[in-house]
């Protein structure tokens, strides 16, 4: 199965799940378990910067497990090269103890980048998948930690490296 078909299948399944949950007699209970928020990301290297904002919504199945979807907006600048990315993600969160959050997130981004050369600027546009695994310290509704991109590609990624810090907040 291609990556594109996998993404559509997962997103369709989540959409179907949320649709049925909203139409059930327990709709009020469903919305009591939905949390809105998202994350911020920053990455720095010797010659660049990466920043991201990712609003999302999660459904808490119980005190340990949650899953949801999100949107992403990223901006990066390395030397004279600029990258702008936007897209969506699906994520899952696991808290084995209240202070520890383990996460997995698949993100699909549309990349618009401009690479500066000595004579001209070259524009390049493409889709880029990222699969993050992460761990963080949680206190109430805030989690701070590190995540690692298992699909990191140094020649295409807008991230400075595969490891990046994050802050997630859910209300």
TrEMBL record:
It comes from the Bacteria. Residues 1-21 form the signal peptide. Keywords: Signal. This is Alpha-ketoglutarate decarboxylase. The lineage of its organism: Bacteria, Pseudomonadati, Bacteroidota, Flavobacteriia, Flavobacteriales.
């Amino acid at each position: 199965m291609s990556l594109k078909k996998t993404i559509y299948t997962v997103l369709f399944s989540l959409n179907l799940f949320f649709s049925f949950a909203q139409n059930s007699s327990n709709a009020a209970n469903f919305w009591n378990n939905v949390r809105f928020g998202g994350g911020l990301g920053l990455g720095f290297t010797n010659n660049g910067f990466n920043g991201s904002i990712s609003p999302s919504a999660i459904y808490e199945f119980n005190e340990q497990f949650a899953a949801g979807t999100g949107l992403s907006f990223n901006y990066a600048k390395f030397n004279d090269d600029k990258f702008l990315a936007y897209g969506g993600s699906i994520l899952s969160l696991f808290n084995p103890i209240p202070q520890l959050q383990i996460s997995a997130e698949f993100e699909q981004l549309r990349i618009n980048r401009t690479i500066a050369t000595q004579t001209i600027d070259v524009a390049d546009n493409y889709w880029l998948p990222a699969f993050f695994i992460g761990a963080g310290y949680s206190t109430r509704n805030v989690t701070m930690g590190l995540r690692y991109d298992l699909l990191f590609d140094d020649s295409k990624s807008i991230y400075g490296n595969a490891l990046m810090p994050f802050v997630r907040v859910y209300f």
